[in-house]
Design brief:
Largest interface: A-C, 27 and 35 residues
Oligomer: homotrimer
Number of helices of chain A: 13
Distance between the termini of chain A: 24 Å
Number of strands of chain A: 19
Chain lengths: 462, 462, 462
């Protein structure tokens, strides 16, 4: 399996972050999106398999399948849908709408049609956006058997009364729901779940961006020593997440944190939608990282609409998982239209998302509660070489961080809390921790779970 | 008993709200205030009985009496006071101040007087408002035996040195404290207490408005199927509420929510003063209803001054009861003066208060915690006809409400919480609940207490 | 022991506050600062002893000593340092820098030196402030044996290449760490700790101001009946506080509240830095007092830098102790320079700090939770002469305060909470309490601990 080593291999997260090449990584991510763009995806079918195989050039993900008809909680895995051709011709035989021009032209899960009909008969099967006359909308009909075409409003207006020949050469028959999965093994079995929906056809931001960034992040983490294990899913929206949760229900307790990645390629600012719990560690971690980024960002409370956080955060599942985005669904005009194309996503935006996620991982990995081993008064940092020897001057950053860590390490406050409260950068707080541990002044409440181990393993869940 | 059916009989609260005729109801309420206005009320006496009898034309309230001398907690029910005539004449025998001109002229509970005296002797017994020279103040002396007259400052200034003949033809003797009570029987014995003070003489907003609105609300609820029972009190301020609480102490645990109604007829915006608990269900319900009204309103924290919430929310009673007002006591210049008259209260304000109270009752009746019966991932709403079949489009209001209800119905969040958090109208959330229950997706945590039953019963407390 | 009675002896805190003479007290405090100013202090040595002896003219504090080498938690009490002379002479024998011009010229804890050296050799031992060319900085080197001089940047610039004669006639040898302690005995053994660091040389605001104000406060409290005992410490920063805590660890549970006093003589507004607990009673008390002062003030959250709250609020000690200041350390340019001199502190500022501290003590002494003995409805205040007899009028301040106290005295809310919530002055709330107690309407939950006792005792801790 030929892995594509773009980054010089860093030895740990900090090096990965320090050596991060925004331009090169942007190009890599953009090329991945560009390669995935032409494939006709849906919640099942060859397009999904093809996309996952393409991602396998970057990461050794496993392709898994669930058979049509499988019962997953309240749902049934649907038949597999594949489309070979779809068009509308006028009486002269001219193709007016053609799947090969845009994957969005076909309503996803359309049943096969081959028929000649009047415009009046055809009209109810046509979808356009009058307000955006040049854009093709994205429509699906997964659970009601029907057919339809999406087209630009200008195309629709070009259609006159007359007869049209309509062809949808598709199959809807027992098969599989396909998804990609990769576990990056860390020192512990405690897991971080990263999920990107992979079912949308040629829409770049929603969600080729998430698929690509997840792949690059997984690729990078495979090289690094990690405390947590990281489980990545490239999975069809809704039915995919539900299937995975149903099949892996007994192992969900391992998941300590998680993120849904979507719409991470547009040039808008970052948006983080909190987990249903609202103050989970992942929520505090992402907020700290975005705060430290120095750029404006938005924090949204959990709402049960959006992406697969709907399933991961359903009340009976309730994982501590938020949604990491740039501009959220429904908040950009190009959303769910043909304008969410290769011009809408930007290399720098893709790479910037990856970079912030690396920082999220860094904080997650380092974040813990420690215990001050010398809790009565300050320890004498000076005689350990941890403090300036000339008094009367102002406390410097690292000294200040040591004082904060010592004071609040009573087993109740984690480092994210301390960094937030102290107004210090997380990396400074973390450096203070390392120095204090090295001098025997700080320890984890239970020492067993504290060592960051090594890496590089892939395996099935459970 | 001839009930005055003004509303066409609605079958439930929603119909009562939908068919609410603001103009007609305003006229009805205003006429009630107008009829009550001339009666000379105090905390005891014929004026109270007469007022309650007048209300009986609208609602079958029971008139109850507590004998003078009864011990009620730290208080003793006072003697009954009645006044037939009261005036001040000058030396020429001209009546300068005359009870029959305004009930406010007499200090409530004045002892009988028949005497001729100098202005110097008279002066300490006269009360006016220099800042409002045309208005007569309202004064009482329930618990210290004295006498006095209230008059406009202009009247006072017209008095010169000279001798005056003073007559107060009043009786203060063992009798009764009188109040009105009505229980509207609902499906359960859990009660909502609605209390309006009935002791003030000719003051329209404070509190003929509350007395009339309470009567119309009771009248309306008598026709409707209800979950809760509703207990209405028209009761003298302080001593009345204390008496009722003392006599009904053993049954107070039934009271789950409550409202004091006062000053609900002026054209000012709504004010809700929270219960002592501060976050009782009634507090959240009223705030949601006022928020949904779309108009500005004020929320006040509990304070131990004001109306009978002072007693209902005393620390040893501590009922979850707030105070529903328009402009609060002391916050309008007409307060406790003759300017709180028939021109100060407005039919539309009275009817608007009634209308908001109906909505409060609607939310109270419907508000519960539910349990999602399919809590692992979303249930498939589409195959139940509860969700749009064409995907890729935006979630509509009712679908969104269903998602919110499903996600937060874990037994910990009630519908008011969900509506607040979702930013959706309560009725939409409630419709979602009804649809989900109908499809077996939602239930009350304990099913026994959940049926809304029928109605129309009056009875004694306990 | 000749005590210097400046105040006419008040009988209680209220009288002490009412008779407080801002001008006279300002003069007294300023004179104390002036007398302490010339003494060369450090964390050990004769300067500390001399300073404490000077304070003994005001208060009968005990001078205590801990031997060099004593192990106190993670620290060791250092050798005692004394300096007799220190200067730099140029080749002509002219003294360019002279300890007798300013105590700040010597780096505290400098080891003895007698040597002639080039400017290049001397330069690393010289400290100045280029941004403030006329000010001498304050520097220490307690735990690293070295030597140095502080001088104005203008002096430094006057030094040319050439040879200099350097003399530091100091001793650093086994001796003692010295501090002052005074316990003002109250009716109970529950203690309030007041601590002022006493180690800085000629710096007036930091902290001759705190030393003087603590002394005057102690002096005043000695005359008054008190509920709490008050323990005052004049103690070297860091090592002093650590030593005291280590030596008195078993008695720390007695300390119920505490304040570090520092920088209380500059004309800036008050700053209160909360205890580590953040909502300790002392935090709420000081905030209320500052709010009632009517002047702007700042509240800071706890941070583990600053003064001896670093030790008192270390996680294993965690006393409910905040830091009472005017302008905080590092927040005024004169901080830790020779400009923190007798012109920087003001008599009125010193006296104003003392005054606010008296009010803090007053609130602390009076603050409790009470229990309404008549919790069911309001008690009838009128028949006890506690309420106006004419009704219809507005509730006055004291009546209002009685209603608030009665309503919230359920054993869960203290008077500070009630005053805050009611928006009433603490003294009014306290007057209400006194009246209610006198009428048998209010009591402390457990009566035993409620009597304020008498005073005037000094003793050792434990």
């Amino acid at each position: 399996m030929a892995l594509n080593f773009v980054l010089k291999t860093p030895r740990n997260l900090r090096e990965a972050i320090d050596s991060f090449d925004l331009e090169q990584e942007g190009a890599t991510l953009y090329n991945m999106v560009r390669d995935l763009y032409p494939i006709c995806r849906s919640i099942t079918g060859e397009g999904v398999r093809q996309s996952l195989r393409l991602l396998q050039r970057n990461v050794p993900l496993a392709i898994r399948e669930v058979a049509s008809g499988a019962q997953v909680f309240d749902w049934t895995v649907p038949k597999e849908w594949n489309v070979r051709d779809a068009w509308i011709k006028n009486a002269k035989g001219e193709k007016l709408v053609d799947l090969h021009q845009s994957n969005l032209h076909i309503v996803s899960y359309s049943v096969p049609v081959r028929s000649t009909m009047s415009f009046a008969e055809l009209r109810p099967h046509l979808f356009s956006i009058p307000e955006q006359p040049d854009w093709i909308p994205y429509r699906t009909s997964y659970y009601k058997e029907t057919w339809g075409f999406c087209l630009s409003h200008r195309q629709l207006e070009g259609l006159r009364d007359g007869t049209y020949e309509v062809c949808i050469d598709a199959t809807l028959s027992p098969g599989y729901l396909t998804y990609g999965e990769l576990k990056v093994q860390g020192a512990t079995e405690a897991e971080v779940l990263i999920s990107a929906h992979s079912c949308h056809p040629s829409l770049c931001n929603d969600n080729l961006s998430g698929m690509a960034v997840a792949a690059r992040l997984a690729r990078c983490l495979l090289q690094l020593p990690l405390r947590y294990s990281y489980r990545f899913l490239w999975i069809p929206g809704t039915i995919g997440a539900i299937s995975w949760l149903a099949l892996n229900e007994s192992a969900l307790a391992k998941i300590k944190h998680g993120l849904v990645l979507s719409c991470v390629g547009d040039p808008g600012r970052f948006t983080y939608k909190r987990s249903r719990r609202g103050n989970a560690e992942i929520d505090r971690v992402v907020e700290l990282v975005l705060k430290e980024s120095g750029n404006a960002f938005d924090i949204l409370d959990f709402a049960p609409s959006g992406y697969d956080e709907r399933q991961y955060c359903s009340p009976g599942i309730n994982l501590p998982l938020g949604c990491f985005m740039r501009t959220p669904n429904n908040k950009y005009p190009q959303y769910h239209t043909s304008a969410d194309d290769l011009t809408f996503v930007k290399p720098s935006a893709l790479a910037g998302s990856f970079y912030q996620l690396l920082k999220v991982v860094e904080v997650l990995e380092a974040n813990r509660r420690f215990v001050n081993l010398n809790p009565k008064c300050e320890p004498q940092l000076g005689r350990r070489g941890l403090y300036r020897t000339t008094g009367g001057t102002r406390t410097a950053g690292l000294e200040e961080a040591m004082l904060w860590v010592l004071n609040f390490s009573d087993g109740n406050h984690d480092l994210v809390h301390i960094a937030e409260r102290a107004g210090l950068e997380f990396t400074v707080v973390n450096s203070a921790v390392e120095r204090l541990i090295a001098h025997g002044l700080l320890a984890t409440p239970t020492r067993s779970a504290s060592k960051a181990g090594s890496h590089r393993a892939m395996g099935k869940m459970a």
